[in-house]
Specification:
Number of strands of chain A: 0
Shape of chain A: globular
Largest interface: A-B, 49 and 48 residues
Order of helices and strands of chain A: HHHHHHHHHHHH
Oligomer: homotrimer
Largest sheet of chain A: none
Number of helices of chain A: 12
Radius of gyration of chain A: 18 Å
Strand content of chain A: under 5%
Chain lengths: 235, 235, 235
């Protein structure tokens, strides 16, 4: 069963009164109330970070909060499917186990989720041609099977499912990569997020939010990478 | 208790019908049936990735599948011992907790496992001399104690235990390093795996398999590193 | 409930007799008995590594051992608060859940913990000015909010709390960064640990200890980074 916010706070207080203060004053009353990002966006980011980290206690709490903040069950569901590829299958399995309980508790049934086979959105052919060329350059002909799976499964299927908007897919992908500290991929996906409509200020705030949920060093590394992306896009 | 495959699939379907489709169509019917790697090798790789990730639900399922796919209990046991050093002791403890239950359920008793002290295989002295020189260059004299432990515990004991073949030790080590995204060590251990008999095609397929279990970005990074290793070995 | 050391050893033996041998001979009788670091320091390091890794079984065992080795409950508590920022909030939540049970079992109540608001230690203004300049150079003006939070929450509050000495904060921070393989931050925090009184030999032994608890590859990477820090400080 998911802990209530009050019970969680009491438990934190029993181990570290200071940590309970940081939670109330710094995180709940300050970070989450800053409107550079909506509460819905902060919830998507936090859920994605917890999926990447495989942290079931905090993930359960954050999925509940996300549903309260306007992330739909279908979007939680599709975020788990999406990150099963970016964070690894075992992180997906962990998140399924947590979400299944919450969906059962809240009476969320499969009617509210996207079909296994949705009508796909149209492909942006020129961007996709660039992406394929970049992957082929990166991995070379010995990995043609990996490159093909990337194209068929990720970019001609998963990313085109309307169950999560391209902007939100970018948001959760970028989050997972920052949380896992993968600088090469962070560059690609910050650019994709901004191509999909996120502003520089929003990207910076995602990274600031993640200082708390992915740990300070990962946020500092991502900020350093983002600084260069921002500079390149401005010229 | 370990979830059955059917129960696991039902649970996934209750959270994401799309993810259940990917599991059945892309992973079970396509990835695992490709014969570039045997099912036994895929199981060793997947178990190693889940040990590195510390994901108990998926690990329990994968250890069961590995035993069904011809990995012996002694090999599962020795993989856990081996990765306790490469992935860290806590990952070993996690895996012990998961495996103890499965061994008990299947009536696997200590007779079927390798002794604590086995007769060791002979050491490849010239390769070992090169390895020692490389480590000393890497860490310098302030770390002579770490270098000595590396030699005594890992290379004059663990790696020489016949309970897991050198080729299989390479396979699970390479997997752990790809899953943890450690490029410097990936280079050394891809080379060692190929010296121990793995082909370029098999190494590429290990990385492709790990796209699913270690997450796509880690596979892309490893493919980029492997591309250069392959090129160097060909010249 | 926390496993006893004897039960843990029996469970390890049931899965891998070799791993039980390494635990007894290499880790308990050799590593932990080496007096380059005190048992108290080794416990702080091991607890910090397990918090960073989010490994509840081993963390429970290690928190109990730390309390037996002279780490106070207040120091365990403050280590969890500190690493909630460096390792990420979900790692903090995990550790709170584990520690709450141990504190309850041992009758440790909030009187024994530091207040949420302690009188802070004085700030080292010149060192702080250097740190701020370094952060601003790293992240640039788009991340002024992140830089401000770093200053206000971490360096003008958390680090100045007397509940954990600066030297011990450095020890657990350095440990978390080595365990997470974050080379850029390892450089800064090895220097800070040595400024806070740790010797070169002690830093080298922390890394050697972490070969076991954070995995061999992370220790080798950290040793390589530390080698250069040591060389720079000597000139």
């Amino acid at each position: 069963m998911t802990q209530s916010a009050a019970d969680a706070l009491e438990q934190i207080k029993s181990v570290s009164p200071a940590l309970a203060r940081y939670r109330s004053d710094t995180i709940v009353e300050n970070l989450w109330k800053n409107d550079i990002l909506t509460a819905r966006d902060r919830s998507l980011v936090t859920v994605a970070a917890m999926i990447q980290r495989g942290q079931p206690i905090e993930l359960a709490y954050q999925i509940g909060l996300a549903l309260d903040n306007g992330v739909t069950a279908a979007e939680v569901s599709e975020t788990i499917a999406h990150l099963s590829f970016y964070s690894g299958w075992g992180n997906g399995t962990n998140a399924v186990d947590v979400a299944a309980q919450i969906f059962a508790d809240r009476g969320i049934d499969p009617d509210q989720l996207a079909d296994a086979n949705e009508d796909l959105m149209p492909l942006d052919e020129p961007a996709e041609a660039n992406r394929i060329a970049a992957v082929e350059g990166l991995v070379g002909p010995a990995f043609s099977r990996l490159a093909d799976l990337t194209t068929q499964v990720l970019f001609r299927d998963l990313w085109l499912r309307p169950a999560l908007s391209p902007r939100d897919r970018s948001l959760v992908t970028m989050t997972a990569l920052i949380t896992a500290n993968l600088p090469a991929q962070i560059v690609f996906h910050i650019n994709k997020a901004m191509d999909n409509g996120m502003t520089q200020g929003q990207v910076a705030e995602v990274i600031t939010h993640l200082a708390f949920y992915a740990g300070w060093p990962n946020a500092m590394n991502a900020a350093n990478v983002a600084k260069d992306v921002f500079a390149k896009r401005e010229t």
